Amino acid sequence: MNITNTIVSSMTIATVAASTLAGLPNTHTWPMEHIMVSMDADNALHAHVMTSADNPVEMLRFAGETYDGNASALNDQYYSDQYGWMLDGIVDPGMGNSIWIEMTTQSAGLSTYEGGRRMMVGMQTFDPIFGTAGSDLNWQWDGMMTHNWYSAAELGDYEATYRIYVGDANGDAVAGFTDGAVTLNFRAVPSPSALALLGMGSLVATRRKRA
């Protein structure tokens, strides 16, 4: 028996079960994928991400789970918070300005909800952003690492392209800066429910006992 695999499986089961009991969506079940945002000496913004259409972030659905409060927007959805916006080096938008991110195009059926730090899921707003539920297409980023939630109701491939720019408090672009852009890729795939994972854990324990 592979002891390492058994330990990892047990940790995954415990994470999923704990999240379900807390009424919060699952996180930490996949590695973070950072969208690195930088600014060069000419005040041009750039964004880099390792994923692509051939190597997308997977969105999973945990059947049978329901989530509390605004997080209920993820009920019965394939979802992920794997992507996280993160500054790469010094990015100075100037006094009174911010980095804004605007959704320019995206696949039909893809929704986005405001997240935050991964260790603080219970404090996140889950407010709809980037055009979801009639929200604004642009979103004011505070420059801190932020993992938003992406979701879809159907299996398949999805993508979203964003303009990254320096804007004032109202979200209007500020002269003297050059916009950046990035495309995020997703794939909604089948996944076992928390109950199924727990059942697998029980099955492993039973097999061990019989052995």
Oligomer: single chain
Q: Please trace the helix and strand order, writing H or E for each element.
A: HEEEEEEEEEEEEH
Q: Specify Rg, calculated over alpha carbons.
A: 19 Å
Number of domains: 1
Distance between the termini: 11 Å
The biggest sheet amounts to: 5 strands, mixed
Q: Which class do the helix and strand fractions yield?
A: alpha+beta
Could you report the average pLDDT, rounded to the nearest whole number?
85
Features:
211 residues; alpha+beta; five-stranded mixed beta sheet; 2 helices; 12 strands
Could you please describe the fold and organization of this structure?
With 211 residues, this protein is an alpha+beta fold. The chain has one domain (24-192). The protein is built from 2 helices and 12 strands. Residues 1-21 and 194-211 have low confidence and may be disordered.
Outline of the structure:
The chain is an alpha+beta fold and 211 residues long.
Topology of this protein?
Layout: H1 3-22, E1 33-39, E2 45-48, E3 57-60, E4 78-80, E5 83-87, E6 98-106, E7 111-116, E8 128-129, E9 138-141, E10 147-152, E11 156-167, E12 180-189, H2 194-210
Parallel strand pairs: 1-5, 3-12
Antiparallel strand pairs: 1-2, 4-10, 6-9, 6-11, 7-8, 7-10, 11-12
Helix pairs in contact: 1-2
